Amino acid sequence: MSGAEARPGETGFASVATAHFKDLQSRLCAAFEQFEPTSRFAARSWTKPQGHPLQGGGESRLMRGEVFEKVGVNVSHVHGVLAKEARGQVAGAPESDGRFVACGISLVAHMANPYVPAVHMNLRYLSTSRAWFGGGSDLTPTFAFDEDTVAFHAALRRACDAYRPGAYPEYKAWCDRYFYLPHRQEPRGVGGIFFDDLASPDPSADFAFVRGVGEALLSVFPQIVARRKDTPYDQAAREQQLVKRGRYVEFNLVYDRGTRFGFSTDADPDAYLMSLPPLVRW
Amino acid sequence: MSGAEARPGETGFASVATAHFKDLQSRLCAAFEQFEPTSRFAARSWTKPQGHPLQGGGESRLMRGEVFEKVGVNVSHVHGVLAKEARGQVAGAPESDGRFVACGISLVAHMANPYVPAVHMNLRYLSTSRAWFGGGSDLTPTFAFDEDTVAFHAALRRACDAYRPGAYPEYKAWCDRYFYLPHRQEPRGVGGIFFDDLASPDPSADFAFVRGVGEALLSVFPQIVARRKDTPYDQAAREQQLVKRGRYVEFNLVYDRGTRFGFSTDADPDAYLMSLPPLVRW
């Protein structure tokens, strides 16, 4: 997408970002389907009914496969007026009348083979009394391989370095702080990057960075999957994976802002809970 | 326990209630072990280290069996000073210096056979600037049988009727309100009773009621287990049970006060998360 196309109109970057997220969704799903002998993504489109305080809609794509045990890639684009109770959770909303536009893409993949890490990515654009981009991506292995961790971080670092010197260590540290389970005193995974409130004087630079993060994930994660998906494993490794997934559930239901924001709205639970793993043990 | 023994001393009912909860724990565990050919409860005692803002300890008992796939029966008795952040969540604490005494018993059973309901019970005593009893018990079937629901509610109703006319419908309605998943627009199970802030002029009446709820559970749940545990089931029924358990996890991690209070303290996560089911599907 060229810089010229990325100039905002009345609704800021909402339209161009949505178009980009839809395109990225298609390319991610196509890349993941390459690993599956028969499984394909099932798409579900949704639109908020007329008269609803939220307007807009989205498309949720879900695949349950042999390599990708459960993977969701969701795009949404909504606008409307935030309920009073929800405004405190959204920057720029308490100072305004609650009107907002939001669009984003969310990806969570839980893998069948315990030696393939789970991955998460979210890219989003929000506009209230002001507008900003946010997002991030992080890796959650049950058994961490340095080779995978290094490759994943290197890809994200390249996207960060192209945006701003110093961005990578800052967003990496933010990720480590965010994806941490205080009650277990352990990190969710091996990190990645997390960023929010990107509102540069030239917002098209922020948008380019967000696109770069999506491309980084698209290039690096399939390589990791290809490297690990046929690793032999026993029942004990599988059990360990199911227990690790329990920590993922604890994080998402107890702490994750996006998930908890979902609970405070009347959004579709199947959309904001698509992050939950297919099979979990406690 | 006689009325004379139940007279409070300096710490109110904490000592007598703790002694009763320990006795109830032993009898519940013994009753559940009757169903198991070989599995037995494993007990884990814990004590807060000296100098810790919380003092006291407890005993967690956990069994993973053939009939009781995962069952925890925990007793704890702690005292100390509530952290400022936690005081707002505990009645009587914001008005005081944060000193409190708490004891309680918690029981959660997830059953192997999808036709046996999961069950939960909690009985507790808290003393801050004032003192009160609370608790409840509720049933969560995947496939509800009227016979079980009726027997369960009848047992709880008898305990309520012996306490105060009108208590049962009031506590039943409180349970229905509490164990509800707004984001799914569905109840967690088929209800039971829920009560809090019992602080009668004669607190020994409240304590007798709380004991009555424990006895009701002890008498009725084994009957339900005996009736359903050998019901033949197929993989589809088991899958439905695993999905239903996902709702249980969602409720406990997102809404349950006791669980969320656990996250806000540095209590042992294995204790307050013992409620989580052994195997879950989303």
Structure write-up:
The structure is a homodimer of 282-residue chains. Chain A has helices at residues 14-33, 84-87, 146-163, 167-178, 203-228, 235-254, 257-264, 269-272, and strands spanning 42-47, 54-63, 70-81, 99-110, 118-127, 131-140, 180-181, 186-187, 191-198, 279-281. In chain A, the strands form 2 sheets. In chain A, strands 1-2-3-4-5-6-9 form a 7-stranded antiparallel sheet. In chain A, strands 7-8 form a two-stranded antiparallel sheet. Chain A is globular, with a radius of gyration of 18 Å. Chain A is built from 8 helices and 10 strands. Chain A has one domain (13-272): Coproporphyrinogen III oxidase, aerobic (oxygen-dependent coproporphyrinogen oxidase, 3-Layer(aba) Sandwich), CATH 3.40.1500. Chain A has 282 residues and is of the alpha+beta class. Strand 10 of chain A pairs antiparallel with strand 10 (279-281) of chain B.
